[in-house]
């Protein structure tokens, strides 16, 4: 047996296929047969629909209008008879209209950022907190986190579900929590040294920033106690993660979740297939639908993820439309888990830019850039239509070794990137090369797109 707490041990074991040496939190549900997990889901779905119909007027009205009764749910596919839920429904019932338990029973309140209008408020009772902890304990162990770890939380706390969600789950596992919060990067690095931090929780872009600041301070990441990065809060492009892993000498995984259905912990990455995340299927029923029609797509096809939490008491949610695009596969994974895996979400239905009639996703730009030597994973897309036509400019940050004083060389490189982008995006864009470090780093969610069109 290897010592999983040794720096690099988890990644090494995974790369050598020794997945049986990595911990699995709850093999009974993470590694069971498809039949068993579907039976658990059906039993919970029936109870959840009854719970919701009896206690939440909004759902009762919707279901009565559609002529559906809880007793109509007899198999998992019957979930399609139920109404969808979206952000608007949750906003309209602000703050407590969707609650299914007396407020006295609620032990925690969180909300989404609410960039426009009212935020979305979610509450948890003790049962919901237990479920949440369970989900977090699963995903952190997929990265090799153990109870003796010291975890520095570089997420902001506050109303955002990411901070406290991970905090409680990691603490329940037995980890020593260091609630650093976000920002003050030099202090973060000092704390890693002082407290012997072994696990860092951060957005991937902030982890990259910590890495760069540490290098500038002369901190040696290779001999650092840090060995695991737990990412969330924003999608993590594969190129960025690989770079952080090699420069900080840590293993990094990211997880998926959203406030409306719980927070982080809906699914998490294992070390066998780095592009996929295992869904906590005994807690969440997933569907993948065509975003236009709401009808199911064929097995394994891309579509919009729809989630029904199966264990949520304080705010039950039926068929939540995430607007996230993914595909889900149900073949057993090399890590030994049999739970369904969703491809990491790289695009949202509403991230899509329409440039002169062509659909463009920021994730496509990321993929092109990650295939070109000499550019960093940092970029920005600026769109305007000052001249009457849509114009897209991609700001690309150079690595120091690719930076040159020769105008000719730089111009040739720029044209090369423009050509590569055109091949994939099918629409022309301009590239602006930016010197190393020239793209502003953010401490929270990275904003890759600036749409200035009027
Ligand atoms: Zn796996």
UniProtKB/TrEMBL annotation:
GO molecular function, one term: nucleotide binding
A family per Pfam: AMP-binding
Reactions mediated catalytically: 2-phenylacetate + ATP + CoA = phenylacetyl-CoA + AMP + diphosphate
Enzyme class: ligase
Keyword tRNA processing applies: no
Ranges of residues in domain AMP-dependent synthetase/ligase: 105-307
Residues of the signal peptide: none
Domain AMP-dependent ligase C-terminal, chain residue ranges per copy: 357-453
Gene Ontology biological-process entries: phenylacetate catabolic process
E.C. numbers: 6.2.1.30
Xref: CDD domains: PaaK
UniProtKB keywords: Ligase, Nucleotide-binding
Pathways involved: Aromatic compound metabolism; phenylacetate degradation
Function as written in the Swiss-Prot or TrEMBL entry: Catalyzes the activation of phenylacetic acid (PA) to phenylacetyl-CoA (PA-CoA).
Protein family: Belongs to the phenylacetyl-CoA ligase family.
SUBUNIT field: Monomer.
Protein name as catalogued: Phenylacetate-coenzyme A ligase
Organism: Senegalimassilia anaerobia
């Amino acid at each position: 047996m290897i010592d999983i707490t040794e720096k690099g041990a988890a990644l090494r074991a995974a790369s050598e296929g020794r997945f049986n040496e990595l911990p699995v939190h709850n093999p009974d549900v993470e590694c069971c047969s498809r039949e068993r997990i579907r039976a658990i889901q059906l039993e919970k779905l029936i109870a959840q629909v009854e719970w919701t119909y009896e206690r939440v007027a909004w759902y009762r009205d919707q279901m009565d209008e559609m002529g559906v009764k809880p007793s109509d749910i007899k198999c998992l596919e019957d979930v399609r008879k139920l109404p969808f839920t979206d952000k608007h429904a949750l906003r309209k019932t602000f703050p407590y209209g969707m609650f299914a338990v007396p407020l006295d029973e609620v032990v925690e309140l969180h909300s989404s950022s609410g960039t426009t209008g009212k935020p979305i408020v979610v509450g948890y009772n003790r049962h919901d907190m237990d479920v949440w902890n369970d989900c977090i304990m699963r995903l952190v162990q997929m990265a090799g986190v153990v109870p003796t770890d010291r975890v520095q939380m570089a997420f902001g706390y506050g109303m955002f579900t990411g901070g406290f969600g991970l905090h409680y789950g990691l603490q329940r596992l037995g980890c020593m929590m260091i609630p650093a919060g976000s920002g003050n990067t030099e202090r973060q690095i000092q704390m890693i040294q002082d407290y012997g931090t072994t696990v860092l929780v951060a957005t991937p872009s902030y982890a990259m920033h910590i890495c760069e600041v540490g290098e500038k301070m002369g901190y040696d990441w290779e001999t650092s106690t840090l060995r695991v990065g737990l990412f969330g809060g924003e999608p993590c492009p594969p190129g960025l993660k690989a770079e952080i892993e090699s420069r900080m000498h840590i293993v990094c995984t990211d997880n998926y979740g959203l406030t409306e259905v719980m927070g982080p912990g809906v699914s998490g990455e294992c070390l066998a297939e780095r592009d996929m995340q295992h869904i906590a299927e005994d807690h969440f029923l997933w569907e993948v639908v065509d975003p236009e029609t709401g009808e199911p797509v064929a097995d394994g096809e891309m579509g919009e993820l729809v989630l029904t939490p199966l264990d949520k008491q304080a705010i039950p949610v039926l068929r939540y439309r995430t607007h996230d695009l993914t595909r889900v596969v149900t073949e057993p994974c090399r890590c030994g888990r049999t739970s369904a895996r969703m491809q990491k979400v790289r695009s949202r239905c509403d991230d899509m830019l329409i440039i002169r009639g062509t659909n463009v996703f920021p994730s496509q730009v990321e993929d092109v850039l990650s295939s070109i030597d000499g550019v960093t994973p940092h970029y920005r897309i600026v769109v305007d239509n000052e001249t009457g036509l849509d114009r897209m400019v991609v700001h690309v940050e150079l690595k120091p070794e690719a930076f040159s004083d020769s105008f000719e060389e730089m111009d040739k490189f720029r044209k090369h990137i423009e050509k590569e982008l055109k091949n994939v995006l099918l629409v022309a864009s301009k590239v602006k090369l930016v010197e190393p470090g020239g793209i502003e780093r953010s401490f929270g969610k990275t904003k890759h797109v600036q749409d200035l069109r009027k």
